[in-house]
Design brief:
By secondary structure, the chain is of the alpha+beta class. It is 47% helix and 21% strand. Strands 1-2 form a two-stranded antiparallel sheet.
Length: 137
């Protein structure tokens, strides 16, 4: 397989993986204050993305993929809010185990990785175009 096409294929898999990661981080941030509907019910549980490697024997290319999306098992945050429908008999409410600072850092890293993969695709495309132009001359 042409090295430039291989580079584009690998970068495209990175774009897809980082896009999924950004979606999961966005979901975590959107649910940062989502509690359960009934007293003592568990709230939204933070999701984590695990990357894996996929080797295509036909092309000889290793690319990244989403291996799984799991729920973070860290304990929930607990807050005193007796007026909440999710409050238990002591007025305590379980809040999601989402840390905004961690999610923002993850979002920034995923965004930078996405941009790097996009730039790699653009560079490969430009080299392919330059090669075609040279062949035409």
């Amino acid at each position: 397989m042409d090295p430039l096409v291989a580079a584009m294929t690998i970068s495209a898999s990175g774009l897809d993986a980082q896009s999924t990661r950004l979606r999961v981080v966005s979901e975590n941030l959107a649910n940062v204050r989502s509690t359960g509907n009934t007293p003592g019910a568990d709230p939204y549980q933070r999701k984590l993305v695990t990357f894996g490697e996929h080797y295509d024997r036909a092309t000889g290319i290793s690319s990244v993929n989403i291996e799984k999306i799991t729920e973070d098992q860290t304990p929930f945050n607990i807050e005193f809010d007796p007026g909440s429908p999710a409050a238990d008999s002591k007025g305590m409410v379980k809040l999601p185990n989402v840390n905004i600072l961690v999610e923002m850092a993850d979002m920034r890293e995923a965004n930078r990785s996405y941009e790097a993969n996009l730039q790699s695709i653009k560079q490969s495309r430009d080299m392919i175009s330059a090669t075609i132009d040279l062949l035409r001359s």
